[in-house]
Specification:
The complex is a heterodimer.
Chain A (H helix, E strand, L loop, with lengths): L1 H14 L9 H11 E2 L16 H30 L7 H34 L6 H11 L7 H13 L15 H12 L1 H4 L24 H6 L9 H6 L11 H14 L4 H21 L9 H6 L3 H8 L10 H21 L6 H35 L1
Chain B lengths: L3 E3 L24 E4 L9 E3 L6 E2 L4 E5 L6 E3 L4 E8 L5 E8 L18 H10 L7 E3 L3 E2 L8 E5 L10 H5 L3 H12 L6 E6 L5 H4 L4 E7 L7 H8 L8 E3 L2 H13 L5 E7 L7 E6 L5 H4 L8 E5 L6 E3 L11 E6 L5 E2 L55 H9 L3 H6 L11 H6 L6 H16 L1
Parallel strand pairs in B: 1-13, 11-12, 11-14, 12-13, 15-19
Antiparallel strand pairs in B: 2-8, 3-5, 4-7, 5-6, 7-8, 9-10, 9-14, 15-16, 17-18, 17-19
Classes of the chains: A mainly alpha, B alpha/beta.
Chain lengths: 387, 449
C-alpha cells in the first residue's frame, strides 16, 4: 500500500491547480479519497469526529441493495426460462442469462451517472459526492430487464442533471433521482414501460414462447380483473413473479431493510409508516370491496409491485424525504396510503408507489414547515405563560 | 432537592485517557498568558507593555467597549511579551512569574451587608467579572443587567472531563462564600445542577441555593442544557452562568480580599503517559505538564475537552475558562480504504462499524475528519444528541442563510457552541456546527445591540 501511496503523492501535483491535468482534479480526488481516507484534520470546533462519512453511508446502502440485485438476476433468468416452458433449466443457466441482461444495465447506469457527476464536480470545483453510488444501483433495479440500454442512459442522464445537479447536487435535490429516472421513462416511453410483454425478458420478441404464457405482472392482472391469475401471497413475498428487476422479492428487500435499520443508516420511522399506511389503506379498501383491485388481500398488496422496494430504499432517502422526526411518520404514512390508493383507483398507473413517493417528496418540505412552526409556537407560548 | 431531571438524548464518547484522582508532581510553570480570544466578541485594550511589573490581580487589558470589565494577571511577575497575530490582533499577553505570589489587595467583602453594586464593583476591580458569563450568547456578562438567575453546573459530562467533586473537595468555605456573593447579584437565586450519581458534599451542603439533580449522557453537565430543563431562556431573558472553580476564586476574594487564580486541572487524553490532576493557575503554560509525559508521534494539544476545547501548541497556554488539557493523536495520515474497513477501532454512533459489538471499549480517537465535507445529507442525526426542544438542523440552516427571524424563533438564545458540539461530532457531512453557531450568535449580537 505504501508504494501506491507514494505513487499517488508523486502524481498528485499534476492534478492540482496549474498542473498538466488540472481539468481532472475532481476525478483524481475522487479516486484518491476512494483509495485512501484524506488526512485532513479538524480546524475548528470538535477535535474528534464520528468515524462515519458519506462514503461509508452510501456503501452500506449499496450493500443492502445487493440481495435484491442478486435475486433480480436469478429471477430474470427464471422468468425467461419459464416463458420458454423450460422451468427445469439449470440454476446457473438462469443466473447466467439474468446476469447478461441485468449487469449491462447496471454498468450503463453507473458509467453515465458517474461521468456526469465527475463533470459537474469539476465544473463547480467541489469533491465528487457519493450520492450517485446509491442512485446508480437503484435505477437498474426499478427497471424491467428488457429495457433498451440507450433508454437507461438517457434516463440516468436526465435524473442526474434535471433531478439533482440543477438543484446543486447531492443533498439539494427535491426528488429522489432514481425515481425521477423511472418516472421519466414511464412517461416518455410508456409502451416500453408498461403492458404485459415487457416484464419477462425475451417476451416482447415472442420467440419460442409457450402457448398461454402471460408475462403480465400481478398488478396488471389485478387491473384487468384476472384475480384468479394472482400468485399466492407467499409467492409474491419470495418474488418468483414478473416485475422490475429488483422489486419482485419482498424477502430480498427485507434483508436489505434489516441491514439499513441495524446500521442505523435508514430511518425506521419512515419505513414502518409506509408499510402501516399501505396496510391500513388496503384493509380499508378490503372493507369496501366494490372492485377487484379493492379485494386484493392487504398483506399481499404490500408484497406486490414496487411497494416494499419503495418503502425500504426510496422513501427513506433522507435528502428528498421529511427531515423532522415527527414529520417522518406523516410523510411515510401518506406514501403508503397514496401508493395503494393510486394503485386501486387508477388503472393507467398500476405502479402507484413511484408516484406516491414523488408526490410526498414534493410535500415533504411542507410537512417539515408545519413541524417547524409548531416548535416555534411552543417557544412563543412559553413566553406568554411566563409573562 | 427537586426531582431528578433525566436527560435522554445525548452521547457519552468513551475515550481512553481519563485522569486518575491523584495530583501529579509537575512544577508550577514559569509563564502564564491571558488570551483575549477566549472571550468571544472582546476588543481588548492593553494597559501594560513588556517589562512592566505586575501582581496577581493587576490589569493587563480591558474591554474597549465596556471599560469597567478588566482582565488581570493571574500571577505576580513581569509582562514578558504581547503576542500578536494578523492585523496586530492581540493573541496572548504573557506574564513571567516571579514565584513571589504577590497580590493586589482589593479588600474583603462583607457579604452579609454588601449591596449588589458593591459586589459587582469588587468583582470588576479584581478581574473576576469575565468569569461571569451570560446566556444568551455565552459571552461575558454585562454588569448593568439584572439576570433572572445564576446557574452553576457542578459537573462536567464531556469526554475525559475533570471530576469537580474531586476538585472542590475541602473548599466548602470558599465555595459557600462565593455563592453568597453571587446571590447578591440576582433576585432569582443561584441554581446548581449536580450529577445525580455522584454529587459531593460540597455541593449538597451549600446554603442559599436551589439544587437540581441531572442524570443521563453528555451534554447533561452543560449548563445550557440544565437551564433549558429548569427554566428555558425566552427572548429578553438573561441568565448568568459561572463554573465551580471560578466561584471558589470569588469566594477567596470575599474571604481574603485578593485575586487567587488557582485552578486544579486534569491532564488527560490517550497520548498522555500519566494522566492526573495538577494544581496550577489560570492561563498556565502547559509545557511542564506535557513535556516528557506524552507518547511519540504527531499530537494535538487541546486546552479544554475534545468537543469544545481549543487547539494549542505544545507550549501553549491554558484557556481562561478551561479546567482540562487533552492530548490526542493528530491523525494527519492517510488510511487505505478507510471507509470500507470493518472498523473495530473506530467509534461511531451508527452501527455501520463493527466496533458496536464491544460496547464497553475505550477508544483513542484522533483529530482526523474521517471524511470530506459534504452538503447536509442525513437527517435526524443532530436531534439524537441534543436534549433540548430545539430543531438543530433547522436552526443551523437558518444561521447559514442568515435568517435572523428564524434564528430567534428556532431558539438561538438557548444554545452555545458546547451544547451543539455533539451534533458536530456525529455529522456525516462534517459540518463545522460550532463555528456556524458562533457566526450566528455574532450576527444576533450585532442585530440586537
Amino acid at each position: 500500500m505504501k508504494a501506491l501511496r507514494q505513487y499517488l503523492d508523486k502524481i498528485k501535483p499534476n492534478f492540482e491547480k496549474g498542473g498538466k491535468f488540472e481539468k481532472l482534479h475532481s476525478t483524481f480526488d475522487a479516486f484518491e479519497t476512494f483509495l485512501f481516507t484524506p488526512k485532513t484534520t479538524s480546524k475548528t470546533g470538535v477535535h474528534i469526529h464520528d468515524a462515519i462519512d458519506s462514503k461509508r453511508t452510501m456503501s452500506v446502502v449499496v450493500l443492502a441493495l445487493i440481495p435484491a440485485l442478486l435475486f433480480g438476476i436469478w429471477n430474470t433468468g427464471y422468468q425467461h426460462f419459464l416463458s420458454l416452458g423450460q422451468a427445469d433449466a439449470d440454476f446457473w443457466q438462469m443466473i447466467g442469462y439474468g446476469a447478461l441482461k441485468v449487469l449491462p444495465i447496471v454498468v450503463v447506469s453507473y458509467v453515465v451517472g458517474l461521468g456526469i457527476e465527475f463533470m459537474f464536480a469539476q465544473m463547480k470545483g467541489h469533491e465528487v459526492a457519493e450520492g450517485f453510488l446509491v442512485s446508480g444501483m437503484l435505477i437498474p433495479l426499478v427497471l424491467p430487464a428488457d429495457v433498451p440500454l440507450w433508454m437507461v442512459a438517457v434516463a440516468t442522464a436526465f435524473a442526474v442533471v434535471i433531478g439533482k445537479e440543477v438543484f446543486g447536487g447531492t443533498g439539494m435535490n427535491i426528488w429522489n433521482p432514481a425515481l425521477v429516472a423511472r418516472a421519466f421513462l414511464f412517461f416518455a416511453y410508456p409502451s416500453k414501460m408498461s403492458g404485459d410483454l415487457i416484464w419477462v425478458s425475451g417476451l416482447s420478441k415472442g420467440e419460442g414462447i409457450v402457448d398461454g404464457f402471460s408475462g403480465a405482472t400481478p398488478l396488471g392482472n389485478v387491473i384487468t380483473g384476472k384475480l384468479d391469475l394472482l400468485p399466492s401471497t407467499l409467492q409474491s413475498f419470495i418474488g418468483t413473479i414478473p416485475g422490475s428487476i429488483g422489486e419482485t422479492s419482498t424477502l430480498a428487500i427485507l434483508i436489505g431493510a434489516v441491514i439499513l435499520l441495524a446500521t442505523g443508516i435508514a430511518n425506521w420511522k419512515i419505513m414502518v409508516s409506509v408499510f402501516a399506511g399501505g396496510y391500513l389503506m388496503a384493509l380499508g379498501f378490503n372493507a369496501i370491496g366494490t372492485t377487484d383491485a379493492m379485494n386484493v388481500d392487504a398483506l399481499q398488496q404490500l408484497c406486490l409491485g414496487g411497494f416494499a422496494f419503495g418503502a425500504v430504499f426510496m422513501a427513506t432517502d433522507p435528502v428528498s424525504g421529511s427531515r423532522t422526526e415527527t414529520g417522518k411518520y406523516i410523510y411515510g404514512f401518506l406514501i403508503g396510503v397514496f401508493a395503494i390508493m393510486i394503485r386501486v383507483f387508477n388503472p393507467a398507473y398500476p405502479e402507484g408507489v413511484m408516484l406516491a413517493i414523488l408526490l410526498m417528496n414534493t410535500f415533504a418540505p411542507l410537512i417539515d414547515h408545519v413541524i417547524v412552526q409548531q416548535n416555534i409556537k411552543r417557544r412563543l407560548k412559553r413566553v406568554k405563560v411566563n409573562a | 432537592m427537586s426531582d431528578v431531571i433525566k436527560i435522554k438524548r445525548g452521547l457519552d464518547i468513551r475515550l481512553k485517557g481519563k485522569a486518575e484522582k491523584v495530583f501529579g508532581s509537575a512544577d508550577m510553570p514559569e509563564l502564564f498568558a491571558i488570551k483575549p480570544g477566549d472571550f468571544p466578541g472582546l476588543v481588548p485594550k492593553l494597559t501594560v507593555k513588556p517589562g512592566d511589573k505586575v501582581k496577581a490581580g493587576s490589569v493587563l487589558f480591558f474591554d474597549k467597549y465596556r471599560t469597567d470589565i478588566k482582565f488581570v494577571s493571574p500571577v505576580s511577575g513581569e509582562v514578558q511579551v504581547v503576542n500578536r497575530g494578523e492585523r496586530r490582533r492581540i493573541l496572548e499577553v504573557v506574564v513571567k512569574s516571579d514565584n513571589q505570589n504577590e497580590a493586589e489587595d482589593f479588600g474583603k467583602i462583607e457579604v452579609s451587608s454588601a449591596t449588589k453594586e458593591e459586589v459587582t464593583e469588587k468583582l470588576l476591580a479584581a478581574g473576576l467579572w469575565p468569569f461571569v458569563r451570560q446566556r444568551p450568547y455565552n459571552v461575558v456578562a454585562n454588569p448593568a443587567d439584572s439576570p433572572k438567575a445564576i446557574f452553576i453546573s457542578a459537573f462536567d459530562s464531556s469526554p475525559l472531563a475533570p471530576d469537580y467533586d474531586f476538585i472542590v473537595s475541602g473548599l466548602e468555605k470558599e465555595f459557600q462564600a462565593g455563592v453568597d456573593a453571587l446571590n447578591k447579584l440576582t433576585e432569582g437565586g443561584i441554581h446548581i445542577g449536580v450529577n445525580n450519581e455522584s454529587a459531593s458534599k460540597v455541593f449538597m451542603s451549600l446554603k442559599g441555593v436551589t439544587t437540581h439533580a441531572f442524570t443521563g449522557p453528555h451534554p447533561a453537565g452543560n449548563v445550557g442544557i440544565q437551564i433549558h430543563h429548569v427554566s428555558p431562556i425566552n427572548k429578553g431573558d438573561i441568565y448568568w452562568t459561572i463554573q465551580p472553580q471560578e466561584v471558589i476564586s470569588i469566594g477567596k476574594l470575599v474571604l481574603n480580599g485578593v485575586y487567587d487564580a488557582s485552578r486544579i486541572i486534569a491532564v488527560t487524553g490517550s497520548e498522555v503517559k500519566k494522566q492526573s490532576y495538577v494544581k496550577t493557575k489560570v492561563g498556565a503554560c502547559i509545557k511542564s505538564y506535557v513535556e516528557n509525559n506524552v507518547e511519540e508521534g504527531s499530537l494535538r494539544y487541546i486546552s479544554g475537552n475534545v468537543l469544545s476545547g481549543d487547539k494549542i501548541s505544545k507550549d501553549g497556554y491554558l484557556g481562561s475558562y478551561h479546567s482540562q488539557i487533552t492530548v490526542i493523536p493528530e491523525g494527519d495520515s492517510h488510511e487505505f480504504m478507510g471507509w470500507a474497513a470493518p472498523g473495530l477501532k473506530k467509534f461511531s454512533v451508527s452501527k455501520s462499524f463493527f466496533s458496536w459489538l464491544c460496547p464497553k471499549k475505550e477508544y483513542a480517537l484522533n483529530a482526523n475528519l474521517n471524511g470530506g465535507p459534504r452538503a447536509i445529507i442525513m437527517s435526524g442525526q443532530y436531534d439524537k444528541v441534543l436534549p433540548m426542544d430545539i430543531l438543530p438542523e433547522h436552526l443551523i440552516k437558518a444561521i447559514i442563510t442568515e435568517d435572523i427571524d428564524k434564528m430567534e424563533q428556532l431558539g438561538i438564545y438557548e444554545v452555545a457552541e458546547e451544547d451543539l458540539a455533539l451534533c458536530e461530532f456525529v455529522c456525516t457531512s462534517k459540518l463545522e456546527v460550532q463555528h456556524i453557531l458562533r457566526k450566528g450568535i455574532d450576527v444576533m449580537i450585532k442585530e440586537m445591540s
